[in-house]
Design goal:
Helix content is 54%, strand content 14%. It is α/β, with parallel strands linked by helices and 257 residues long.
Length: 257
């Protein structure tokens, strides 16, 4: 499959739909059971992009990821400013449910790693109840710190073979953990999911449907988690930089014409 991508402020974001993402994961897991992989999937949003601008190694990690799905309404806006468009806004929580339905049908084995103590376990129980047939072999907080890898890897290995691991340490810690851990653990696919376990477990309420349709999930999260306001400061800076980049590109096209 040849994938079209859009570069947003130096970060590659792949123009994939939910169905295409699920299809790729299905294929990669099948290949992984035969020794293929590993594949790191990331879920970029404006905070990712701004962090990548500050961190060359994180930017390089995103460039080398198997798939960077367009999660975050700011990316949709940035693409439109460039005169381009992502075909679908692939939200992390909804993607997890679609992958869980696939896992239930295929007999995939999952592991949930990260978040606060007990949150991953509650998320696992809810996912398993909603998607009968999905095997969640383990769920634990673990640790994103490299010096703690032996202990965290031991937790995962104790669960037996894993087809897909979801890691919720927040960016860029979760992506760095995946990049250095999937190979040693022989896991074909890993996804950094940020706050998804909090939504799945009910620890943090998700935005109502009407706010999701209006692309206002970011506002709802700020309302229910006001401590995130410092992180949200990245959004206006992102929009300003994306607008300037789009203006430069338009000028460049005009001169070429």
């Amino acid at each position: 499959m040849t994938r079209r991508s859009i570069e947003i402020l130096g970060v590659r974001v792949d123009d994939v739909t939910y169905d295409e993402t699920v299809g790729l994961v299905d294929r990669w897991i099948a290949e992984g059971r035969a020794g293929g992989g590993p594949h790191v999937i990331t879920t970029p949003n404006p905070e990712f992009v701004m962090a990548a601008r500050r961190s060359p190694d994180f930017r390089s990690l995103l460039r080398s990821a198997a798939l960077n799905v367009p999660d975050g309404v700011g990316l949709m806006l940035a693409a439109r400013l460039r005169g381009e468009r992502f075909r679908e806004h692939v939200r992390g929580t909804d993607l997890v449910h679609r992958l869980a339905a696939l896992g239930a049908a295929r007999g995939h084995r999952w592991y949930l790693l990260g978040a606060a103590d007990g949150v991953a376990r509650r998320a696992a129980d809810i996912l398993a109840a909603r998607h009968p047939g999905l095997t969640i072999a383990g769920a634990a907080p673990g640790s994103p710190r490299p010096e703690d890898d032996p202990g965290t890897w031991a937790l995962v290995r104790a669960a037996g073979p894993i087809d897909l691991i979801l890691v919720a340490y927040g960016a860029p810690a979760q992506e760095r953990w995946l990049a250095r851990s999937l190979g040693p653990l022989a896991i074909p696919v890993g996804i950094g999911v940020g706050g998804v376990f909090n939504f799945l477990s009910g620890t943090v309420p998700r935005a109502p449907g009407w706010m999701q349709r209006l692309e206002l999930e970011w506002l709802h999260r700020l309302i229910v988690q006001p401590s995130r306001w410092r992180r949200q400061l990245a959004l206006p800076r992102f929009v300003a930089l994306a607008t300037l980049e789009a203006a430069r590109q338009r000028r460049g096209r005009s001169r070429s014409a």
